[in-house]
Structures are given as C-alpha cells and as structure tokens.
Amino acid sequence: MPRKISFIVNPISGLNDKSQVLSAIGKHLDFSIYQPEVLFTSRPMEAEDLARECRGEVVVAVGGDGTVNEVARGLVGTCKTLGIVPCGSGDGLALHLGISRSPEQAIRTINQGEAVSIDVARMNGEPFFCTAGFGLDARVSMEFARSTRRGLPRYISLAWEEWKQHSLADYRISSAKGELWAGKAVFVTVANANQWGNQARIAPMASLRDGLLDVVVVNPFSTLEIPDLATRLMTGRAPTSKHFLHFSGSQFHISRNGSGAVHYDGSPFDAGTEFDLEVQPGILRVIVPHSKAGHI
After folding, report:
1. Whole-structure pTM over 0.70, yes or no?
2. Could you give the C-alpha distances from 231 to 14, 155, 178, in angstroms and in order?
C-alpha cells in the first residue's frame, strides 16, 4: 500500500512559477511508494496548519526557507516526516542537507533518500531550523521581504544599500556558564544549519545533529574588506576572518541595546532587546540524500 504524501506549495515563493515542480511530481514521484496530494497556501502561516492537519505521512515543503519553516513547525511533535523541494531565494536548510534545487532531483531524493532526525532551535520559544539573526542581515531580510523583486542580485543590492547606512548595536551574549562576550557587532547569527542560503556559509562548522547552536559574531569591518569577507563566506572559510567570533552551546541569552529587526529562517520581524535561545536535539525527521545522511 503506497504511503500518503502531501506536497504543500507556496505559489509566491522564489520566482513564483511552480509548473516545473508540479510536472516533476507527476513525472518522477514513485507512485508505487507514494500516494500524493497537492495543497496550495493562500495566506501567511497557512502552511503550518496544513502540515499539521494533512493526511500525509511525509509532508513536503515546496518553497523557500520561510515555507520550510512553516511546514516544519507543523510537524514538530508529530510522527510525520519532512521532505523539501527547494524553490526559494536562498534555500539555506535544503542546501545544508544536500537537497538539489532541481525539482527532478529533489523528487528523486524523496523517492530514494533516507529519513534522519535533526535538531530544532528555538528563539523565545519560537522554532527555527536554519539560522536566526540580529543586525545587518536582519535589516536586509526586512527590506527583501518588502521588495517586489526576488533573487540573489536583488538581495545583494539591498545589502549594499543597508551597509551604506548601517549603525552598530551593542550586544551581550551569555550562556549557562556565564557571560561570553559583550561589544559592538555588525551582526550576530545563531546557526542551527551552516548557512543563510545560496551557499553563504556563515557557520560552516554547524551540524544539525550535534545538539548545539553556533553563535557567530562579526565585529566591525571596513568597506574595503567586504570582498575578502564575501569570498571567505562563499568558500566556507568565514571563521578564518579576524572579524569572526564563534561560540557553541545548547543555550544562550542574547541582549542588545535597542529594539529592531530580527529574522529566523529569513523571515523578518520587529522585536525587542532580550532573546533566549535553545536547541532541542533530534526532534524532527527529514528526508535527505543517502550520501549526506551521515554528515549533516
């Protein structure tokens, strides 16, 4: 008897057109394994409700990191397994997991891959699965969410505009063992997975199965240093920068001297000054390629 599988499609994520994904489901899904249904979202946060209520034993998020976040939130604490067909602007969690951005390959992973348990992070009780952040990257995420244009070039353009007018915040980071660091930073990233998206690996040391969060602080740097820092980021060598600080642990408290933008999994919002962060080990199952199952 084929297993029930539900595809939850965000029709406005990424470049919007999902016809290639729908075609790939029809052509490449193994119907001897799965009996599919396709559900479309029509409003924010609907994907979480659909994931929790749908009939699929496997629930596939078709969209970007925001869609993945919503679907995964609906699966935490259930017996359902997450699948991902990435088609967003960044696709950070999928890329960390080794899931192809080709719809055909992503469907083949769902057919042939392996279900593994991964950690879930929380910020002030709210779950996230890839990264959360404060500072410059959160403000860029806010402007990107407001923009009618998508894609990496638009993100880079907005990042440059934000950089030209950015201001530094004061942060204080502590763990159960006491204060770790205090000072000014361009941004602070809390990583469950290793990247923001598009292979920009802000925390290349991060693992989704180690029961730890990786907190990355990037200290002030000059405009002239941006090309070097960008190269390190895209080649997985961000920790080699002198501006990079790294802390690892299962619980953190982060405070800052003023309210403003925050994001988790690329979804921005305005928030206050105090943040509790923790990780819950191995409470979400997700399908990944066999070749990645042992080292995510």
Report:
1. yes
2. 25, 17, 34
